[in-house]
Design goal:
Length: 192
């Protein structure tokens, strides 16, 4: 059974993006970009929602010669949406318009490739709540975007205990934290 990893980049205060800031908050460095665009990170099936699909497929179309997007173009991708229609423009992308949780549960039963999310906050929240997420990874960017932050990542999440299994620092400033998540039924120590 393949593992499912939820994968986010976040500001220190938990935002996915910030108004007026460049992508990666302008802090992506060569070590991080090399890690993102190479190696075993690209031996998986990418899962995303419609908003992320529209954004990422647009970037891929604008930058066809970018090595990172060349890898993404070749990668098998599944987009969960009731608003998109086939045929999809991004190569190697399958559209699923049914229940995402049930579809991913079936993919975990039948697929041999690891599964990873790209963005897609509500999809990730649903998959975690359903107990389907095996790993939860964040790369923390050293900025606080309290005034301009958009898309608070953890709003609406259940309580989750996280066991740290890997850490890494990129370019002397970006911190990767990888966890095994356990969704809690109630506050810790209540016996619920």
């Amino acid at each position: 059974m393949p593992n499912l990893m939820v994968d986010f980049i976040i500001s220190l205060d938990g935002y996915a993006a910030a108004e007026g800031w460049p992508g990666f908050w302008g802090l992506e460095g060569p070590e991080y970009l090399e890690w993102v665009s190479s190696g075993p990170e690209y031996e998986h099936t990418a899962l995303m929602g419609a908003t992320t699909y529209r954004l990422m497929s647009g970037f891929a179309a604008q930058m066809p010669d970018d090595p990172g997007f060349a890898e993404m173009n070749a990668l098998p991708k599944v987009v969960f949406s009731s608003t998109l229609e086939t045929p999809l423009s991004w190569a190697n992308t399958e559209l699923v318009d049914g229940d995402a949780v049930e579809a991913v549960r079936e993919m975990k039963r039948t697929s041999t490739r690891p599964l990873r999310t790209i963005g897609s906050l509500s999809l990730c929240r649903s998959l975690l709540t359903a107990g389907l997420v095996d790993r939860f990874r964040v790369v923390v960017f050293p900025v606080i975007t309290g005034a301009t932050g958009r898309e608070r990542i953890f709003d609406g999440y259940p309580d989750v205990a996280l066991d740290l299994v890997e850490t890494r620092t990129f370019d002397g400033r970006l911190q990767l934290l990888e966890y095994v998540p356990t969704v809690l039924d109630g506050p810790p120590g209540t016996g619920d």
